[in-house]
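Exam revision sheet. Question 4 asks you to relate a sequence to its structure. Input first:
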Amino acid sequence: MNILISGVGGQGTLLSSRILGNVALNLGYDVKLSEVHGMAQRGGSVVTHVRYAEKVYSPIIDLGMADIIVAFEELEAVRALPYLKKDGRIFVNSRQIMPLPVLSGAAKYPSDIREKIKQQVKDAVFVDALELAELSGNKRTLNTVMLGVVAKATGIGREHFIAAIKQTVKPALLEVNLKAFDLGFKL
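Answer key, structure tokens:
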């Protein structure tokens, strides 16, 4: 299974990849993770690759080989599309985060992102994960909401994700992350 997680700095892509990695490890799979940061501390792109199988030889997902893309922001979803395999699935947080060139007026945020994604991917799911994260009590749990949404697509039971969240998330943030996961899972 090849899962690419794409977002911007501060959205929790790294935590999400560690949770997914722990889910797979706990099930006995060989797991490889890789991360790419692009000015992450300044809201730049962050992409993580999560690969698991009986044996995984490389941590990097090749173009056109991702089974699932999880995008925490719409523009990041478009940037990640070349990695998706022909029959792959994409899950996109429907909120937009304006990159620095847009904020400075040097560029314009594309207005037709959803249409572009839907033209290329027949199984595209858009979720207002920020709204659900706010319902959980902490908007920073957007990443865990998205994991909840994606959990069913992995074919792995909810209980395995709950165990991995408990194993990975700091105790002080555990309750709100479990609530966020369940809000996403129930969609």
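Marking note for examiners. DSSP finds eight helices and six strands in the chain.
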